[in-house]
Amino acid sequence: MTLQPGYGRRVLDALDHCPDRIALRQGNSALTYSQTRKHVLGAAARLAELGLRPGDTLVQIRDNDVWQWILSAACAVAGFRSCSIPPSLPADEASRRVAVAAPTLVITDELGEHVAAGFQVSSLADVVEPTAEFGRELNDTSCVIRLAFTSGTGGQAKGVELSDAAMGAVAAASVDTIPWPEQPTVICAEAVSGGFGNMVLPTLICGGTVVLPTPTEPLSGLLDVYPGSVLLVMPPTLRKLLDESGPLGTPPALLVYSGDVLASSEIDRVHRWAGPVLCGIYGQVEVPKTIAFLLPEEHLVPHYAASLGRPFPGTEWRVVDLDGHDVPVGQAGELWVRSATTMSGYATAEPARPPFAGDWLRTGDICRVEDGYAFHEGRIEDVLARRPSVVCPAPIERRLRTPPDAQTALLPGHEDGDVVVMSTSDENAASIQEAIEESGLTLERFVKVEGIPRTWMGRIDRLQLRSFT
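The chain above was modelled as a monomer; its predicted structure follows.
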């Protein structure tokens, strides 16, 4: 069996291919492939000068820029763990994440002592100018090179450890599966410190250029500047673009989205604007961007367009009941995944529910699979009934007959099959109870609330709702 190169080796190989082409661009700044390679190796050397050794952790608490990616790439080359923490986080959560990461070095330009206390701190300016050459290369692809945090929407955010081999496999799978144009110009509308940062290396492997917007650049304007580009967006960013009052900008050649399925009306709007350009990719922090994909032509079929897509090549699925037994095709259950792109484990203490069953990752996502396509129904912590079959709230909520302006959400009660209804209106309480009973469930109680909170992604924030009960 031939070992595949890890992430760090793939970075250096990609940056060797076309030295004079622009690799990274942001505002008026641009770096060629050769300049980017020099910066990656220079940053690795400088981090070693500042005391990092293989296995040590670098934390960045900085705004989005090309150096976010350069420093994470430098860590991969040198065998350090890279961790990015958004500066917009509340101070207590930022402090908790720094403590979990236990960094040897924190790079930040503005940071309160509540986070920095006890850790060595440098600014970006301290790192960009090395004083020595970097002469070592990582040979152990099992080495953890990335510490990424989950969103925390189901509870406290967990630190996910990703190896050099897993991150290299993510890049390879993305290159092979996403229909990239030749030498693409890729506009990354999201922070490269997050999940879409995983698309930087595939772009470079394809000989392309990654463009990061500045805070003052409208996305529609960038699309005009780079006609025929690839646009990387999360659904909230795409919705904002579609809802802008002005022109949308020049249609992209490909629009890659991740994080949620799109409504049929949103798909129709994109198709009217740009044609069949949508490509969906689904993953978790534990399996970055490589669980399922949905190609542009599949978005033209309404049934498939409502799905997460088919498994990435090399990714295996199982759908199981909550006792770990495979369920019949088309029945909802927890999605288990086995892939070379899967995490090594959690940096935090092992959760009460083990993340692995053998070599299968338990995703916590409730899905049903039909014709090889996965359809998302909810999260395991929100399941209303567990046996004999899994029942999630979202499919029932979509069938509820409520007043036009009412908002309603269902939560699990104290016993399996009991349901708590949270609603802004009690006008149709009887019909809601009827729908619940038709699903074989029991209404535990009805709670009237002022509003139903939503996550930044637009989903019902059931974690916050549970605090209302």
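The longest strand covers residues 360-370.
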